Amino acid sequence: MKEELPKGYDCPACGRFHRFSPWVYAHWDIAITHSCNCGVEATILMGRAYPPDSDIEEIQEEEEQRKQAEQLVNAMTEGIEETS
Ligand SMILES: [Zn+2]
Fold first, then answer.
1. Can you state the percent helix, strand and coil of the chain, rounding each to 5?
2. What's this model's pTM, rounded to 2 decimal places?
3. Which of 1, 10, 38, 50 is the most exposed place for a label (fewest CB within 10 A)?
4. CA separation (Å) from 7 to 4, 20, 25, 28, 37?
């Protein structure tokens, strides 16, 4: 299953759209910050924007769990395909 990467993010405070630069894609898996014109520094992680007061460690943990859950679902789907 191929997911299309988001092209940018909406500022969590004012909703302004910001296009991701190649640099953002190069740092996809790590939390980076981006300052909006409204003065809010959003944290960008894997294409999602989080307000500046977010607990990034918690978010990364959740992302990790989400990935593991996805892998589990994939493994189960494969298992079903194999036995049917
Ligand atoms: Zn903004």
1. 40, 20, 40
2. 0.70
3. 1
4. 9, 6, 10, 12, 18
Query: Cβ distance 41 to 12 under 8 Å?
Result: no
Please, which residues have CB within 8 angstroms of residue 4's CB and are 6 or more apart in sequence? none
17-57 pLDDT per residue, tens? 999 999 999 999 899 999 999 999 999 999 999 988 888 88
Distance 19 CA to ligand 1 centre (A): 13
Residue 63's identity, in one-letter code, is E
pLDDT at 3: 67
Task: For residue 26, report the distance from its CA to the centre of ligand 1, in Å.
Answer: 23
Collapsing DSSP to helix, strand or coil, 22 comes out as helix
Ligand 1 centroid to residue 42 C-alpha, Å = 8
